[in-house]
Amino acid sequence: MIQFDEKIYFYLLAIIPVMVLTFFFLQIWKRKTQKRFADSSLLKRLAPNKSSFKSTIKLVFLLAGLAFLVLGLVNPKIGTKLETVKREGVDIVFAIDVSKSMLAEDIAPNRLEKAKRIVSEIINQLASDRIGIIAYAGQAYPQLPITTDYGAAKMFLQSMNTDMLSSQGTAINAAIDLASTYYDDSQQTNRVLFIVSDGEDHSESSTIDAVEKATQNGIRIYTIGVGQAKGAPIPIKKNGIVESLKKDNQGEVVITKLNENILTEIADRGNGDYIDGSNTENAVEFIKEELNRMDKTEFEAKQFAEYKDQFQWFLAAGFLFLFLDIFVLDRKTQWLKKLNLFNEHDDD
Q1: Co-location of 34 and 149 in the same domain
Q2: Residue 95: strand, helix, or coil
Q3: Measured at the alpha carbon of residue 327, what is the angle toward residues 321 and 333, in degrees to the nearest 5?
Q4: 220 and 266, same structural domain?
Q5: Which CATH number belongs to the domain containing residue 265 in this structure?
Q6: Is residue 344 part of a domain?
Q7: Neighbour-count burial of 258, counting CB atoms closer than 10 A to its CB (0-12 exposed, 13-18 middle, 19+ buried)
Q8: Are 193 and 214 in contact (CB under 8 A)?
């Protein structure tokens, strides 16, 4: 397992393609200038020991040296041992609505981005809880299984969009059923499910059945509503520009509204609470207090330990290549010249 201390220094690698392009254009300019000065045979007589490939080798050494120095600044660390540790926490699954209605912009910047921000802020408040992520629309899709890797969770969270599921609609029951499979039956941890949605549901009766089944399995369900009751149209964008608004079969503009009633009913039947997601700070604070009140269950988690700094190896390699770049001369090496590996014949 590898960790990077200072990822910001990776941006310095952008200088490498710039230097390559500069070298390329400089070589073109030199050749054009030399042709104007004299023909190739005369140039070889004037500079018989000038190597045609040493400049490229020097560039490779220079770029390799810079790349290794940058990696040294980033300071890669390698986990040398995988060990099992005891942790206490709650198993939390986030079921996030990615149906097209989540593109409505009645809450800035839109419902889906608001949902992702709320979940991200909740994750920031967690300490040792395990988390999983589900995406759902007309069907549910496992985005991330139960894990303690919060970094991976945020990465998967940010990649979620309304195009990731081909089956459109909103089937909350499918999300609840899938969430029930996330929890480890061998470890009786406290189980919490957060449904983040605008509340549009095309299978309400099946959803209530799914909620009752989930509560029987010890799952506590909270719902977080994103959107407004007055509703908003669903924009259809291309390259970030609104081209039209979603319309129904009769050609009327579809207005999607926050359905707090179904979300409240799900939360009530799921022994949880309905949370208004319009204010991120208030919603996250309420959830933090709820989780802190819950009994924490001890569970085992495997993680890499004893991370050791590796920057010294990269710095050493970087200085070595820079040293080679300095001492490699542009003129031909005499013993290589005798071998004539590159067919650099001298003209008589």
Answers
A1: no
A2: strand
A3: 115
A4: yes
A5: 3.40.50.410
A6: no
A7: buried
A8: yes
Cut 0.85: pTM above it = no
Alpha carbon distance 118, 15 (integer Å):
37
Q: Give the residue from 86, 190, 173 showing the smallest Cα distance to 136.
A: 173
> Is the domain of 135 the same as that of 60?
no
Q: What type of residue sits at position 211?
A: V
Residue 257, CA distances (Å) to 118, 232, 280, 324 in order: 19, 7, 19, 67
**Residue 237 located in a structural domain:** no
* 71 shares its domain with 100: no
Distance CA 278, CA 198 (A): 11
Distance CA 126, CA 208 (A): 29
Which 3 state secondary structure label does DSSP give 341?
coil
> Which residue type occupies 115?
A
- pLDDT tens, residue by residue, 174-216: 999 999 999 876 666 789 999 999 998 767 678 999 999 999 9
Q: What is the pLDDT of residues 300-324, one digit of tens each?
A: 655 555 667 788 888 898 899 888 8
Same domain, 140 and 283: yes
- Split into its structural domains, the chain has a count of 2
DSSP class of residue 176 equals H
Question: 100 and 73 in one domain?
Answer: no
Q: Which two tokens stand for residue 207?
A: 């959803």
What range does the domain containing 9 cover?
2-81+307-338
